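Before the break, one more example. Copy the sequence into your notebook; we will annotate it together after we see the structure.
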Amino acid sequence: MKKKLVLMLFVVSAGKIFSQFEQQFYLDSLFIHYVFMRTSQNLSESPIKISPEQKKCGFNLAANVFINFEKFNSYQKSILKKLLQRPITDTSFISPSGFFRIHFNKTGPDAPAYSLNQLANALDSVYKYEVTFLGYPPPPPDNGMGGDNRFDIYITNLGSDYYGFTQPEYSIGNNRFTSYTVIDNDYIGYPTSGINGARVTVAHEFHHAIQIGNYIYREADIFYYEISSTAMEEFVFDDINDYYYYMTDYFNNPSRPIILNNGYNLAIWNIFLQQNFGHQLLKRIWELMPNHRALTANYLALNERGTSFGEQFNKFGLWNYFTGYRSIRGKFYDEAENYPIIKTSNPMPFNPPSRVYSMSSKATTNYYLKINSGLDTLVVIISNSDVVNGIDSTNKVFSFNYNLYSDTSRGTRKLGGIFSADFDSPYQNFFNVSEILNNMIIIGDSNLFPTRNNRELFAFPNPFSFNKKYFYGEYLNIQINNVLFDEILLNVFSSSMQLIFSNYLKLMFLPNGSKGVKWDLRDNNGELVSSGVYFITVKIGEKVLRDKIVVLYE
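Here is what the structure looks like once it is written out:
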């Protein structure tokens, strides 16, 4: 490679037509970065600049090289052909539950530095959670490429500091592929090191294998592949929290269209959806993905639940305000106190009797307008939910006016007996607006204790503390909406996905007036469960509902 390249890996917009120069630059960039990921060699005359976010996962890079293989020149093909082959190792073994074959070298620079037994147990937990508990189909068999049809994990020294990658291997039609996963051998120097680095990586990459094996691979939607896989780390291994390291980028840029995010920084979108609607909504989005772009699939899945993307995206904006020092324990995100603070506009003054704030935003963004008036601070969350332009025209600008009045009767939006306001825009239908006055929601999702009653399954109190006396007794109440049966099967799994309780229970009326069942927090041996995270499933006929609970001894 004699010409110098500015080696910043970039994402190609859907439908973009390359010039010959752009096409070659793109292929050269893919080639250089893939060689670097696999070998740590820099074949360019320029330094390779890779952001920490890009090093989080090499899946998109690996997939693009695989899919574009025939477009590379003969020199590049000769190198890539070898690198696309599976790593050569001297040893392999099968995980205890039989779901995975783990390949590694006993000695040398690729030898694992963490416990292989812990890795194998983590892999089995990943499978049991994502496939057995959540109901995703497993990755398709690979025709014995790794020695059998188990999913293959290869451990090697990724000196390029990538956590790992899932490599598409053979097409099975309709943009679906068999695959295998490569992970680092030690995670020394990573934000999450050692065995915990391996744990979050296998949770993340296994979901990529599920995505491209059963649904579709579409490069233009890579942001949502990474949202899903990064959130899955949190769902499977709740106590590790590697996703914290990438959140600041989104919290500093909420006015960036969703599709232009890398996805690692937006795992909280899926966490938000899961807390409000349960895991089955996330699975439904993937079921819609083969025929729809990712944002459209989100839009349609929410419509099926009787709500709208705009309503939920604005509520998402509200939740993102109550983080860090603004967090309220037991409300909004479970881990909100550990999240960054959202970036608002520079404080804008308000001088009575009125002022018009003329602004603009882009599609699928949240704009936080901050207004100061004496001792009062008003934060206006203005959400643009135009999914069509959020996919096709991310540079399109949507103007709007926010009119604030000190006369509380003048505007249609009544703001806490202090102000009133009007919002208007030529694109009115694309906007949802809510207001926070002096850190209290006054228009929007005014319930600071967000309900989950729009979910089919809702367990409360959650977290459950043995040291607190609840007005509804010392039971976990499991509300089940829209159930036509009189009896359900309740299963409770530990965080390692071991079944600890299973029994048929009769439905009854719960203290909040809804129908459901009660669990006394005892396992099948009659022993009280210990503090920790538990997963519950309720089987109603052929339907299975799922939720996560936390038990505490405070």
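Residues 20-83 form one domain. The chain is about 30% helix and 25% strand. Try to locate both features in your own notes.
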